[in-house]
TrEMBL record, chains A, B, C, D:
Residues 4-182 form the Prephenate dehydratase domain. PANTHER family: PREPHENATE DEHYDRATASE P PROTEIN, PREPHENATE DEHYDRATASE-RELATED. This is Prephenate dehydratase. It comes from Streptomyces cellulosae. Residues 197-274 form the ACT domain.
Length: 310, 310, 310, 310
């Protein structure tokens, strides 16, 4: 298998920065791809060992291109996630001052994050969308625009200067990235894991989705994401991308997935992997009756009842 | 093990009639006991192979003596059940006519079943409670009372005549009896079985009992009996005797019992055994997603996900 | 309306003692009746203002005669409840010693409470059932039996002496009594009330009872009693007597009852009345979102939405 | 109030076509706006009576710009919805043949719908994104590109010819549009309505979302859309845009909204309006116990219980 990771390029974007926070990235060749789809296809086709792509951000929500690929494309699995706080720097050619700036550029996804800053500081600047923030920086370098919003790390690469850093309209602006590979055995549980799954309901009736979520709730499993995606079968036909706390090797998660498999039309497992969002306070304590020990002990009791030994 | 069945005596009661409907009763010595407790203790002490006792009737509800023994005494298991329609005959000494009857006798449990008949036909007769209906018949034979309400089958034994038969205030009056033995492997499933269990809640909070019943409901398991019994820990402290459709070797039932074991303070398995109430229409069709095949297939899918093969 | 209370007699029983703890009993004539049914019929027929009868005890569970009358007889309502700790005294004629006692008597319901004491102290005494504990005391007075188990208060009435007091096998042995009248407006809420209701399910299907209990659970209403009683339509046909925390004038209780009325085949309201079991710790705090204020505020919001004002 | 409707422009797009299917559009001035936000701001600012914008399509799912405006902007309400089947025509200048086409253009949202058609028919054509399909058509008219994917209706406006019509990769490709106005009393129920609401959970715990959906499920209300949107408070913080069957003046819907208001941190009503998706088979039959009559009758029963009259 090639020792390379595909990622959503170009170079010098937040995606690359996030990818480089993974220790294993240091030992792989990192290859930028022009789209999420092409990066994932590189994995499917065996050109890359894994692909690193954004999947969710705190301003726009789920990244639909990534979700739709995981939902409907040839099966892949998530092995790692990275959370990156997103703040922008205003990059200019050396010598440019704020009052010199007539045009600013960035990827359209940056716009909601810098809109208020622009209103306050550069109300008259003209916005020009670019294919990526890195591309915007390049165009500033080439003199086409006066300033670019990009990660501060991009300044060095394009010979630019950061006039201002830490620009972000929303507090806690973060993007979540995932490392995606071909299906294989998930990494062992770490004690702070999440499990991703896609579910298609069997039919549409009052309480259908409630019952589906009940498979998690009755086993004390908290949900971290519920994102509906159209199935393509017409308006109102959705499947659900769900991230749940816990690892498929946890008994409560395994039994919940079994329950979902039974009641759903279809279920697709997207992986169990370490959570990137666990801080000092650690993970939520388990609900009474949902630990592996309690599951094992209950299974043992039922086995003894089946044998008439108790 | 002694080839004898204990039963709630005396001879010549509905209990004996019900017991004799079991084919296996023909090959055992049938020994009457004076109380449910003594019959069950005969099993616990090894004097009898099994005991046959009433557990529920359609007029009085659960037979609390039997339930409390199964709930709190040394563990026993139910292996068979019998349903018997209860109608009474009015037994008199030969030659007695309706207008001769001044006193009638029966076990107090018979009273709700014959009360309306008495009002219409013998409004002035004096009621005398007896220890059993058979005992009432004996006392009529001995001349102490004029008439007894008992099963028609008791007439011959006591040299009496049935002045009237088929007496029953409530339509569908039935009593359910169970054959109880020491814990052993339950009989194999027949496709129309029930499972009995006693459950103690962990604590008392809004939704506690609802969640407990949810372990059955989410797996499509219908309940046939829910009888609360005091735990002895004071007013308002109850455990629940539950009969559910299905056999502990059914995957849905086994998983429900596991769930209950995990969330309950305590659970006691009382057996899985063939249902006596299944008529021509057969058993309720399984809810989608709850068959053994669907459980097995879902477990297999989860195992494959755990291995990354799908 | 006659200023009298009917109660389950005879005089000198626990029922009378419990009744006399009610302040309003001091201003009524208290009339003993021979049965629960006759006491309740006295209310129905207008001979008594209310009837005072046992409804639940911590050893035997629900008193089925009382429950069945409330469930199936002409409608009545509960207005008060009383909890009485039940301990027995061993009453003898003055001069009798323990070694003189060959026969003991009491109502059969006393037996489970004194059985262990008898085994330890009078293993050879012969048990004779009496119609009531007071009757047993009378029969001791008359010399028919040597000793009676009854409330200590009965000693004086029958000229007997208590050889021993405080006899009770089960700790926390209590009986709950209710004061029952013809339907009328319930007493105002006290902040620590309970509501009694009888529910008949529309049909029998997996989850039916779970959904019924869900009407309480989703509104944060704790259950204090769930007692199934046969409907008379054959084995397995039950209605449910439920005591729930709260008063029908509490918004959460009123809405839960509405929900039950809609989903049940039939519902019978048995009253809202002050709880007798609330100690120093007071009542359970309300679940978030279930106070009257929150109900009113939510109703107000919906009304404003319906008007397009928000 | 000005007799004008704002809509997402430019002219000659699917949005305008959908808007013109509303009878009331014939009597209003229809004014195109450059963005969803500006169209909605025109309503908020009083320049337009209502705005017509896309909210959901069967390929991309919820239109996040529209949802986020309804979720977080100054309150607006939905009054009508329109469903439009989306198929594309390939528009060229008269005389152009398929083999002449080197460049094709359309709005990026058209791409997933025409991708397969392009692979089969114009594998070598170069894709150029345009600001709208109408804009692409204009650029073809001006000679900048060879062909545009747009609605067939755009041909006449731009002097173009449709080389092919009915192009759509996904069967049942539809877009849902809504007519949005300032808050006012919703239109009267038609018998086939939907209600839109946004819900913010109080906190994040196992079962939280399940319980929220339970408010609909227990009242037999089917969900038509569940779309999570980030709250801006960081990754994993979502609110839920929900479309439910029924009208806020239906008792079951009003009570469900009340329940949600009580258990949610926040709730925003987005309107009750006629469903556009009801075909010949009509609406789903109501679940037993959820009709207005049953609600009214249950409320009446509770009121009578509160008065002691029953």
């Amino acid at each position: 298998m090639p020792a390379s990771y595909a990622y959503l390029g170009p170079e010098g974007t937040f995606t690359e920065v996030a990818l480089r926070t993974l220790p294993e990235a240091a030992t792989r060749e990192l290859i930028p791809y022009v789209s999420v789809q092409s990066a994932l296809d590189a994995v499917r086709g065996g050109e890359a060992e894994a692909a690193f792509v954004p999947i969710e951000n705190s301003v726009e929500g789920g990244i639909t291109t990534t979700l739709d690929e995981l939902v409907a494309g040839a099966p892949l699995m998530i092995y790692r996630e990275v959370l990156l706080s997103i703040t922008f720097a205003l990059l200019v050619r050396p010598g440019t001052t704020l009052s010199d700036i007539k045009t600013v550029s960035a990827h359209p996804a940056a716009q909601p994050q810098v809109r208020n800053w622009l209103k306050r500081n550069l109300p008259d600047a003209h916005w020009e969308s670019a294919a990526s923030n890195a591309d915007a920086a390049r165009l500033v370098q080439e003199g086409q625009y006066d300033a670019a919003f990009a990660g501060e790390f991009a300044a060095a690469r394009y010979g630019l200067t950061a006039l201002e850093t830490g620009i972000h309209d929303a507090e806690n602006a973060q993007t979540r990235f995932v490392l995606v590979g071909r299906p294989a055995r998930p990494a062992a549980p770490t004690g702070a894991d999440k499990t991703s799954v896609v579910l298609w309901q069997r039919d549409d009736h009052p309480g259908g989705l409630r019952d589906l979520l009940g498979e998690f709730a009755t086993r004390g499993i908290n949900l971290m994401l519920l994102q509906s995606r159209p199935t393509g079968a017409g308006i109102g036909n959705y499947c659900f991308c769900i991230d749940a706390e816990g690892h498929i090797s946890d008994r409560r998660v395994a039994e919940a997935l079994m329950g979902l498999k039974r009641i759903c039309l279809q279920a697709r497992f997207l992986g169990s992997y370490p959570r990137a969002d666990v801080g000092q306070e650690g993970v939520r304590p388990l609900m009474k009756g949902t630990s592996d020990e309690e599951f094992t002990s209950a299974a043992d009791w039922v086995a003894r009842c089946q044998d008439g030994r108790f």
